Amino acid sequence: MKLFEITNFLEALAPLNYQEDYDNAGLIVGHPNDEVHAALVTLDCTEQIVDEAIAKNCNLIIAHHPIVFKGLKKLNGKNYVERTVLKAIKNNIALYAIHTNLDSVHHGVNAEICKRLGVINTEILVPKTGILKKLVTFCEQKDAEQLRNALFSAGAGNISNYSDCSFNVEGTGTFKGNEISNPTLGKAGVREYANETRIEVIFKTQDERKVLTALFQNHPYEEVAYDIYALENKLQSVGSGMVGELEEALAGDDFLRLVKHNMQAKVLRHTDILAKGVKKVAVCGGSGSFLLKNVIAAGADAFVTADFKYHEFFDAEDKIMIVDMGHFESEQFTSNLLIDNIQEKFPNFAIRLTEHNTNPINYFI
Questions:
Q1: Would you write out the chain's pLDDT as a tens digit for each of its 365 residues?
Q2: Which of 9, 45, 210, 218 could covalently link to 154 via disulfide, CB atoms 3.0 to 4.6 Å apart?
Q3: Do 109 and 95 share a structural domain?
Q4: How far is CA 186 from CA 171, 179, 182, 221, in A?
Q5: What is the CATH number of the domain that holds 289?
Q6: Which of 33, 89, 39, 31 is nearest to 62 (CA)?
Q7: CATH (domain of 216)
């Protein structure tokens, strides 16, 4: 298939505009029109992973972490990042990263952790803002239903568990076309009055092109009047971290054993085990210390994440048990999540899970 077919699917699964500002998710090496015949999925892209792709005849590597995180000014092979990129280019291997955008979606990295820990009734801990926009347009009352349906089909009007959402109000519009106009109503050069409907719909930023295309293709007027507003409303299905609950409360040490076993962690770092036990659980794949205040405010009993610094453990203040299982351990099953989704969409496409453990950290136990 063409590379863009699989990247379009991945970006529908986790849109690129959901990534954090510092991130570099998306197609890093390769052209969208390149032919791809097999993909290798991994948490990290390293020279060893490129060698594995070559050996397995895969010309696409899909990684969670971007190999190019900061800008490259030169490609001289002086470090592992430059050497990995050079090797991929020389062997016509495309590199794609799906990072914090996959962290942010409700069905992404954090959902996979929750599934493995048995955390249910989940919701996003800190929903994102800046993802939603509102379209306002006006048309003749008799055409309003057809236009609304077209906008809904393009992705507008979805709010949480509801679809086909819009606000409508009837009023009078005026217009006067110049001598070269071709108005749908009335005559050029004459002020006209029309019974119109004002239609308001919300849409996600990444759907703007589709929504505007639907607007222009289905609006009856020669000139379409419309406004687009950026909204600060939170999108509840997208954001940082996830919180839910266990079916039954566990004692703190039993919960630690659950995390260690189900996440295949060799060691856990944690704060004091609290007498209240663990029922409500928050998770964040990767570095999650920035969410601690939100986790405490949500009333969680335990926070499972990674990369807590020494002094940050003090911030628990006996309100919550912090469980640091390691960055790799928290995200290692992301590859399985990606493979499951890709195989369901493209059952005849060859996709393989790496055989290499890319964790750069070793444990002496």
A1: 999 999 999 999 999 999 999 999 999 999 999 999 999 999 999 999 999 999 999 999 999 999 999 888 899 999 999 999 999 999 999 999 999 999 999 999 999 999 999 999 999 999 999 999 999 999 999 999 999 999 999 999 999 889 999 999 999 999 999 988 988 888 899 999 999 999 999 999 999 999 999 999 999 999 999 999 999 999 999 999 999 999 999 999 999 999 999 999 999 999 999 999 999 999 999 999 999 999 999 999 999 999 999 999 999 999 999 999 999 999 999 999 999 999 999 999 999 999 999 999 999 98
A2: 210
A3: no
A4: 18, 13, 9, 12
A5: 3.40.1390.30
A6: 39
A7: 3.30.70.120
219 is in an annotated binding site: no
**Alpha carbons 310 and 307: distance in angstroms, whole number:** 10
Q: Which domain holds residue 268?
A: 105-126+239-325
Domain match, 138 and 225 both: yes
Residue 361 lies in a domain: no
Do residues 121 and 254 share a domain?
yes
**Residue 65 is labelled as binding a ligand:** yes
Task: Give the pair of three-digit tokens for residue 273.
Answer: 């085990």
Are 68 and 154 in a shared domain? no
Q: Cα separation of 139 and 135, whole Å?
A: 13
Any known ligand binding at 64? yes
Tell me whether residue 364 is in a domain.
no
Determine whether the annotation assigns residue 331 to a binding site: yes
Among 214, 233, 252, the domain boundary falls at: 233
Q: Which amino acid is at 8?
A: N
Question: Is 99 part of any known ligand binding site?
Answer: no
Convert 206-222 to b/e letters by CB count within 10 Å (16 or more is b). ebbebbbebbeebbebe
Of 175, 206, 233, which marks where a domain is finished? 233
Domains held by the chain: number: 3
